[in-house]
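Reviewers of the previous submission asked for a worked example of the structure-prediction workflow described in the proposal, so we include one complete record here. The input consisted solely of the amino acid sequence. No template or homolog information was supplied to the procedure at any stage.
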Amino acid sequence: MRVLAVVPARGGSAGVPLKNLAPVGGIPLVTRAVRASLRSELIDRVVVSTDHAGIAEAAKEAGALVVDRPEELSGATASSESAVLHALDALDEDPEVVVLVQCTSAFIDSADLSAAVRKVLDGEADTVVSGLPTHEFLWTAAGGGINHDPAVRQRRQDREPQFRENGAFYVMRTSGLREHGHRFFGTVAVQPVPARHAIEIDDPEDLELARALAPFVDVPEPIDVDAVITDFDGVHTDDRAYVDSDGREMVLVSRSDGMGIALLRRSGVKVLVMSTEHNPVVAARARKLGVPVLQGIAEKRVVLRDWLTIEGLDPARVAYVGNDVNDLGPMAEVGWPIAVPDAHPRVRAAARVVLSKMGGDGAVRELCDRVVAARPETPAPEVKRRPRFGPVAVGEVLVGDGEPVYVIGEIGINHNGDLDLARRLIDVAADAGCQAVKFQKRTPAICVPEAQKGQIRQTPWGEMTYLEYKERTEFGHDEYRQIAKYCDERGLHWFASPWDVPSIEFLEEMDVVAHKVASASVADHELLRALAATGKPLMLSTGMSTLSEIDQAVEILGTEKLIMMHATSTYPLPPEEANLRTITTLKERYGVPVGYSGHERGLQISLAAVTLGAVCVERHITLDRTMWGSDHAASLEPAGLEHLVRDIRIIEQAMGDGVKRVFPGEEAPKARLRRVTV
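From that input alone, the workflow returned the following structure tokens.
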């Protein structure tokens, strides 16, 4: 053995009680010292010298050997050198180099440690001390200059840096230490360390400063857990509430959190939101994320224990993210207590990990990424033996089983060629809570049959040919650019059903998030091949199609980014033709997410489709069903669309996960009403 690191870590401390076990960034100081030493490529073995059982246990868990430090070497007056020499004797080792590593430095860089060891091994120095480069002017209490002449005030760039010993580590030739009995002998060199690593913890203020710096200094490591539980206010939000003139409360969240949660759930990690308040904002956000939520909880710790028991989870492999003192209880129950950086000081002190992102500004996404990074990659199956069932990413939203239902407001041609009417319909969809709106895009000269082009039609704009009418109601580049901008402002995806290849090229120029295949286009293989070539997510409507025709379409489109839409192309749709069990048939046959595109009057059939597993619902929308145009009569008006989305979200929440359990709301009635007899 050439290099031995010794970490003196006694139990007593004048400034901070049991300082060496104090956590910084959720990790005890003694553990941090051991890990930094083990990461150094030149250190062969790490030993912790201690008189405290708790420190010894933490050292062993971190991978160090432990030497019991005798009482006479454990007092406040005992030198660190005496601990190092005792450790050498106790181990009966005579390494070429010994390194004294101090727990009081929380941010030791193993690269700096290795560089210092190399200087001694290469004969450049007999002792190397860590030091912070400084150009500070030092004064005596009497006003005398120590390292400068007050009469000659040099500029910073004119002075060589001096080094302030920061106490992180001392590298010594072992023979010299034994000969001299102290750490400074022979040729002494300095190993510069950056300011962010140079803080030394002597008192509570230093400890609090180190804890505040940890999220910015520590290199984020993967978090290996099976479940993530989060508080809501201050974690998913910035802990502020916005109230409009009608008294409705809104909160600020990060869109990136949604994708993070989706990735987490796809990797098999369970997710739960807990909140002491009972607030519709919490429920709405949880529905959007597709995760269960427990609200109005007085005793988070008790409810958390019950949930872990019900789910059969090992608390040591569970993360809880909090920001305030009411989170301390549940944080103490899990192996990974986590805090946001602006959390209450007691919460940061109790955390194993302090995130770098604030609540509402990506804290949840940061956590999700670190959890997913620890999950083993699932190997691709050699043979696909059962359906995939998705999900498919449409923009930043996942559409598939287990995800929130993706609701599409089908504007189609109900805008009647009027851009202002299109904007009003976009508002209807956004206000109702839809995730997307869909249009139809045609090149009339291609799509209108020759026999119909010259037919005369009576229209709101007067008498014109059918071709002129179709051209009159089509939007071009300028209109769709305005539509795209307005949808983005309202937080909606937009896309369209292209009816011909030039329309696909047009929509690709608009960079739509997906394409819809209309039922009329299922057998248009030229169109399908062009759509498959885009690489975009595709939604295939199956109205007026046989399974054989759908088989051929799927062969062309593939299944990787395919969402199938059960539909019956009768306008309006009578209940006896809805045939909703086809949703299950399509899922089992093609192994892709299946939604529902409805043309019925009312809401019942669409809601039933959700209970049967439809992952998205598309309905035509209009301002008034009596408006001029072929699709208005089978469309939903604003109130109907709002009720549809509301009821879909209620159904999602009511469906649950199928696990029989006693919910928190049942506890009081159970205690009051349940009789137990034997």
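The first strand starts at residue 3 and ends at 8. We consider this example representative of the routine output the project will generate in years two and three.
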